[in-house]
Amino acid sequence: MVKFDIEMTKKYGPVHGVYFGRQPLMTIYDTSILKQIMIKEAHLFPNHFNTGLFPPFLDNFLFLLKDEHWKHVRSVFSPIFSSGKMRKMTGKINKCCKTLCKNLKVQADMKRTFDLERIYDAFTMDMIASVGFGVSIDSHNDPNNLFVRMARKLIVNKLTLGLVLKFVAPWLLKPLTRLGVPLFEDDYIHFFTDVIKRTIKQKDDDTADGPQKDLDLLQMLIDAQRASANDENLKRNNDNKNNKDDDDDDDDNNADYKPKNDMSWNDSSAHPKGLSDEDLLAQSLQFFLVGFETVSAALSYLCYNLACHQEHQERLFNEVVQIIGNEDPTYDSIKQLTYLDMCLNETLRMFPFATRADRVASQDVTINGLFIPKGMVVGIPINLLHSDPDYWHEPHVFNPERQGHHYNWKVNTVDPMRFIPFGAGPRNCVGMRLAKWEIRWPLSTSSENSGLVFLKKPT
Ligand code: HEM
């Protein structure tokens, strides 16, 4: 994709067009225009492009929601990723990391090469099951577990008759469904609906005995759903976001971004109160859809980079030993691992999972002299922005130092729009903080006693 973007940009300039099916798509490789689209004039580009490649029961997931519905669900959803809430998951995350270390040690003791990506894939599955749903599994050693099988079905999103029809002849979906033709696989939907119902029931039983200590995202989502059903609670929920205790770190690249006029998070007035049950189901399923491959791939790429660069790996190892030692990492101790953060950012620069982002123009608009018609999809070539040699010296070299303070893009050395692995503006990645913790945590656990694997440069 990046090769295609480079060739198109060379041939046709920083603004050029392609078609996605019948949908025209304008790729823009000009950071001053992108800043307007994603941040300053974000209210004119409020939505992502729906390619139509998801089954209908996933159309309600945040990434695809539009306008007021999106605004409402996001305002309910984003507080569950605050640092205060993350801290409450420490026990669960440490448990998954211990399972990971145990599995890595077994492989290392066998003294032969193994597929690290498969191990991180299983670890990410365990994390989502535990942090997302409060379900404790070891999917590396128990790949046939029902929860794992259902989650994988959801992630793989097999091409079904329904999906093909949704793309080429959507008007056929309703009559065929009425005739009972099986169009989509839906056993995993029934499975997760049942998990949610049981969690709600469990939650009601637990609250009768007092508040719970160890929370998972689904429980928080249910809390948020209930709170949002009542204006007073919703206001309190949103006020919490400004509470320093609850949200006290600056993981958010867009932390200084203040939503403009009608993009305000607190505006729930324009949408009916509460989250519907479909919203709740879709938002919990999205932990897999957007939180699985992204985290697993970033972890694997980070380890690949460290394997290829022993000097960086050793510096990171020393930092972990010095700050964490043989203790279990905590939210606050991991925050002190600045070199780890630099290595992660550099990895996300080189290998951004989302090679492209997009926005749809909600009306005719002219930005810096460029006319963008209503309905036009704007393509944002993240990979190209991260790898242009005019801005990143030797872009394909892993150089964590360039992510340090003296190089920091925040102090103008590099335009901030040239490092957007999680997107930018109000429509950026809502799970960014969780994602970064899920990646940093296992690497902070790799101290001697818990089975550090010293990686060898791949041959
Ligand atoms: C390394 C891991 C991840 C990367 C690189 C990543 C990247 C992205 C990107 C580029 C976008 C589009 C942003 C934009 O258009 O400006 C996005 C959106 C989103 N991400 Fe992530 N993501 C990651 C992990 C996660 C996780 C763990 C979750 C949640 C559990 C998550 C939830 C979402 C959601 C819900 C959206 C849509 C937000 C909206 O439309 O309001 N992501 N992500």
Automatic annotation (TrEMBL):
Top-level taxonomic group: Eukaryota
Binding residues annotated for heme, in chain numbering: 429
Pfam families listed in its UniProt record: p450
GO molecular function ontology, one term from the record: iron ion binding
Sorted UniProt keywords: Heme, Iron, Metal-binding, Monooxygenase, Oxidoreductase
InterPro entries (UniProt xref): Cyt_P450 (IPR001128), Cyt_P450_CS (IPR017972), Cyt_P450_E_grp-I (IPR002401), Cyt_P450_sf (IPR036396), Cytochrome_P450_3A (IPR050705)
Region: Disordered, residue numbers: 229-271
Family membership noted in the UniProt record: Belongs to the cytochrome P450 family.
Record protein name field: Cytochrome P450
Annotated organism of origin: Helobdella robusta (Californian leech)
Biological classification of the source: Eukaryota, Metazoa, Spiralia, Lophotrochozoa, Annelida
